[in-house]
Amino acid sequence: MGQQLYKERAYSLRNLIIYFLKLGTTGFGGPVALVGYMHRDLVEEKKWISEDEYREGLALSQLAPGPLAAQLAIYIGYIHYRIVGATLTGIAFVLPSFLIVMVLAVIYIQYGGLPGIQAVFFGIGAAVIGIIAIGGFRLSKKSLGKDRLLWFIFIVNAVATVWFEEEHIWLILSGGLIYWLYRSRSLVRLSAHMLYIPVLLQITTTTADATTLQRIAWFFLKAGTFVFGSGLAIVPFLYGGVVKEHAWLNDQQFLDAVAVAMITPGPVVITVGFIGFLIAGFPGACVAALATFIPCYLFTILPAPYFKKYGKNRMVKLWVDGITAAATGAIAGAVVILAKRQLTDVISMTVAFATILVLLRFKKIKEPWIILVAAILGILIKQLVY
Q: Which residues contact 304 (CB under 8 A, 6 or more apart)?
């Protein structure tokens, strides 16, 4: 009882909001790095939440559709402060990056593009790969231990993600089920509702007669509802709708939008705000962001009470362990995919490798400093070499 009371008083809601405001303002590296920061800061250093609570949140975030890091932030807010905590931490995490993206969007519209973005992104992009790789390494080391079956589940999901270049929710679910069955030595009958929920998420409807803002709302609502996995998984879905289906943006504008999201702190999914701004100004940005994040908010807080209540049950813990291993494998696969696309020459590979070495050698160096140095290096390299 005393231990539980201590945990509940270990931090205030104000402390948590301030932390996520800072993380949303300075947290570079995408979803893998962001969830790694949360583990390092809140579990290892501050000890505000337990390892089990973190893993339950990570498993739920990976199972539910929507951006991984934002969902984990919402779940962490829910642990001790329920709906109010989930709501305020979610807003605190997303708001800083949204405001930064709005400023960049205004500059982009005003000057017809961002002339220096390729040079800046060249350095930052390579460093981000190193940051993500270290975050994924630490997460897998902590989650998997020496359990061979968990490592097998991890490897299968990593290889599948690299091979198909997308995360598969069925493989992630299967990882949890396999580990559950093997460790409990019991048979489980799957309920029908576990099979039809993801199918229902594929339903689409026409938006031909809707206004622009309504079409934006519907499309980004689908984006937030249909896409499982990390925030990076939403990029192919957005490209198909924004460029191919609706022709709201051309290829270069879309790539610029993704680049802006990658070089700003906070969740990568915030690119939807930039895209919305290019389509319909500030109202379009607000509608796109709200439509994208509302589903992930609901898909987190609705099942959260059950994870909180039954998360310590042995059967549930086995399932969560398997899910976590599968999710971590999918994240590792995403790192490989990003590296293949970003590290295209010796210089970018060197920057990424140097970032990994620095983070391994100097564990107290904060990632924003590395991002700043990488941005300066990118500009210098582009001027002197290319």
A: 60, 75, 78, 86
